[in-house]
Amino acid sequence: MSGDLILSRPADRRSLLIPATPHDMDMLIEMVAPGRDVRAKLTQPRSLPQHRFYWGLLQKVVQNHEFYSTTQALHVWLKIKQGLVDAIELHDGHTHIRVGSTSFENMDGIKFKQYLNTSIDLIVTDVLPGVRRSELLRATEDMIGMRFSDLRVGTLQ
User: Fold this and answer.
1) Ramachandran angles phi, psi of 39, nearest 5°
2) Which residues of 56-92 are buried (b: 16+ CB within 10 A; e: fewer)?
3) Mind listing the pLDDT tens digit for each residue in 41-91?
């Protein structure tokens, strides 16, 4: 049997993770025999504030860059630079390159936070050289009314 179950971290921090509901507890008991090890992949839902900050960041860059005129073009460049591309070999010998997706379905909150951090680094090194990371973050924060430091995974939903 396999399935997704929800774990939560209690506020008292005495336990690292516990089943979030009685149903999740039942699933865990049924899936894992006592004394057995299991491999788990931890994911966290993406948050709307992360999404909003990212697109606000891109808007701020586009407003201050002579080449990129749309957030969508900058978004594609960031995805390509971070390797979010698939090469599809066609039967006629041609290769089609498809840019990957950063959608909520394709990227959880943990991966998106990594993507966002790398995007910021790429912007300040390649797109807006000379602009410090802190300056870019502050300008974005002022524009959208949200602090980057509040975007820690798990703190804003």
Assistant:
1) -100, 135
2) bbbbbbbeeeeebeebeebbebbbeeeebeeeeeeee
3) 777 777 888 889 999 999 999 999 999 999 999 999 999 999 999 989 999
